[in-house]
Design brief:
By secondary structure, the chain is of the alpha/beta class. The chain folds into 2 domains: 18-213 and 402-472, Aminopeptidase, CATH 3.40.630; 216-371, Alpha-Beta Plaits (2-Layer Sandwich). The chain is built from 17 helices and 15 strands. It has helices spanning 2-16, 30-38, 48-60, 131-142, 145-150, 173-179, 181-184, 242-254, 264-277, 279-286, 294-302, 305-310, 348-359, 382-394, 411-415, 431-435, 446-472, and strands at 64-71, 74-80, 90-96, 117-118, 121-123, 156-162, 186-197, 209-216, 218-227, 314-321, 333-342, 364-371, 399-405, 421-428, 443-445. Strands 1, 2, 3, 6, 7, 8, 13 and 14 form an 8-stranded mixed beta sheet that branches. Strands 10-11-9-12 form a 4-stranded antiparallel beta sheet. It has a 3-stranded antiparallel beta sheet with strand order 4-5-15. The longest helix is centred in the C-terminal third of the chain and has 27 residues, at 446-472. It is globular and about 80 Å long. Bound molecules: zinc ion. Zinc ion (ZN) binds at residues 96, 129-130, 165, 192.
């Protein structure tokens, strides 16, 4: 009896013991490989070691690699079925090696760079954004190595791993699109984007919907600063200080009611969402932009914050600072940073003009820190249909919608160069998993990793079949 109990205990303990950094287990499964790459602290600017590891893995998998940039802060390479020099039309899966920082705090159930596998879930910074996705793309492409040797496939399939996405893409996707587009010979980019979600349609919560992004909001990072000389000592309150001016300005711009702006993509998205949902609520969604519903649309959209961000510019205060000083000195400088996301029809110039008018104080300086390039929407084409067909094979009964992505990714560099790019995570995600991105406890279930690989494989298969059928005609 006692023996059995100990055995049971051993089994339980064994099952829940995480695989921690330093334990190098032989790699048998994609999730174990993911666990390995999660152990690299590849914050933006420090991608080389994880990149080198993945490059060697790609070679072991039988893929052809091309190293574009080989410095510590800019490590970019591709792994493809055929050498890029063959110049086959190329389907490029775009992935980034860098992750945002994570503080190893009590908030994390398992340390962020441990790559722990516990209860059939892989834990760590980058599980979803985006090492886990890059790994799924790599496994899917590598599964076609033998087939590509036996016959000439109509496309080359490539995973492009780049640096610095989280810091604006300058040392990764931007560099590649400036110097290497001829070699890549890209027919289509499949990058980061929307996943499969349930509970989207009010009348059909069980219906899974994949949001395939065809355009993104433009990111615009601003610095607002004020220099104001005062008498210094805070025992005599100053009527206008750098802080009072800046705080008033921040209040003015963040309390403004955002204007609702529809474009072609969002109009189409709401129409399709309405059709999928059906009934009265479907009718409302479908006609949300009609004159009939205009007086009510803000109220309706406010109930769905995610849908509201699709049609409004957002302004988020991300930092506020004064130079270091004792508490009894009035600072002469105040600085704040904003992350703004603009709907595609609003230009930076137009947005800044409005912002200045709203602030209405010449003492506030506005500087652009960074912005994503202007891009045109990648209209759904037959490749989009092939991706949709692949997704439907992997997730029977799912719906696929072309959408505006409310964030900004490296896809925008390709779109701004006239290359079609669709954004997609072919995974079923729930609210908890989505909220873990850029936050504590980023994780991905082992099952989801395996299904993601299958979905990418099916997308590749559909793209091949579509081209082969076309050639036969
Ligand atoms: Zn990302």
């Amino acid at each position: 009896m006692k023996y059995h109990f100990q055995l049971l205990l051993l089994v339980i303990v064994f099952k829940v013991t995480p695989v921690l950094a330093g334990d190098t287990l032989p790699i048998h499964t994609p999730s174990q490989l993911l666990s390995e790459i999660l152990k690299y602290r590849s914050l933006s600017g420090h991608e080389k070691s994880v990149g080198t590891f993945l490059l060697n893995k790609s070679l072991e998998m039988g893929l052809n690699v091309h190293l574009f940039n080989d410095s510590d802060s800019s490590f970019n390479f591709s792994a493809s079925l055929y050498p890029l020099e063959e110049q086959k039309p190329n389907i490029v899966f775009l992935s980034h090696l860098d992750v945002v920082s994570a503080v190893d705090s009590a908030e994390w159930l398992h340390p962020p760079f441990s790559g722990a596998i516990v209860h059939d879930t892989v834990w760590g910074r980058g599980c979803l954004d985006m090492k886990g996705i890059g790994l799924m793309q790599l496994e899917a492409v590598a599964s076609y190595v033998n087939e590509a040797k036996q016959k000439s496939l109509p496309y080359n399939f490539t995973v492009l791993f780049v640096s610095g996405e989280e810091s604006g893409g300058t040392l990764g996707a931007k560099l590649i699109t400036e110097h290497n587009l001829p070699l890549l010979n890209t027919s289509l980019v499949i990058g980061e984007g929307g996943a499969g979600l349930k509970n989207v349609l009010p009348s059909k919560p069980e219906q899974e919907v994949f949001f395939l992004s065809i355009i993104e909001k433009k990111s615009l990072w601003l610095k607002l600063s004020v220099r104001q000389k005062t008498h210094g000592h805070s025992s005599l309150p100053a009527s206008t200080s750098a802080n009072s001016i800046l705080i008033k300005s921040i209040d003015r711009i963040t309390t403004e009611r955002p204007i609702i702006i529809f474009n072609k993509t969002t109009k189409n998205m709401f129409r399709q969402l309405g059709e999928l949902n059906g009934g009265v609520q479907g009718f409302v969604l479908k006609h949300i932009n009609s004159w009939l519903l205009r007086p009510f649309r803000r109220k309706i959209l406010k109930r769905e914050p995610l849908l509201l961000t699709e049609v409004t510019n957002t302004i988020q205060l991300t930092n506020y600072s004064n130079p270091n000083g004792p508490p009894n000195v009035i600072p002469g400088v105040a600085t704040s940073y904003f992350d703004c996301r603009l709907v595609p029809t609003v230009t930076t110039k137009k947005f800044l003009k409005k912002l200045k008018r709203r602030i209405h104080n010449h003492k506030v300086d506005i500087d652009i820190i960074d912005q994503s390039p202007d891009e045109k929407a990648s209209k759904p084409n037959e490749q989009f249909n092939a991706i949709e067909a692949g997704l439907k094979k992997a997730y029977p009964g799912c719906a696929v919608l072309p959408v505006l992505f409310p964030a900004t990714t490296d896809n925008s560099y390709f779109r701004s160069n006239g290359i079609k790019a669709f954004g997609l995570l072919p995974l079923e995600l729930n609210q908890t998993l989505i909220e873990s991105v850029h936050s504590a406890n980023e994780c991905v279930p082992v099952n989801t990793v395996n299904k993601g690989i299958e979905a990418y494989k099916m997308i590749i298969r559909e793209l091949i079949n579509q081209e082969n059928t076309k050639m036969k005609k």
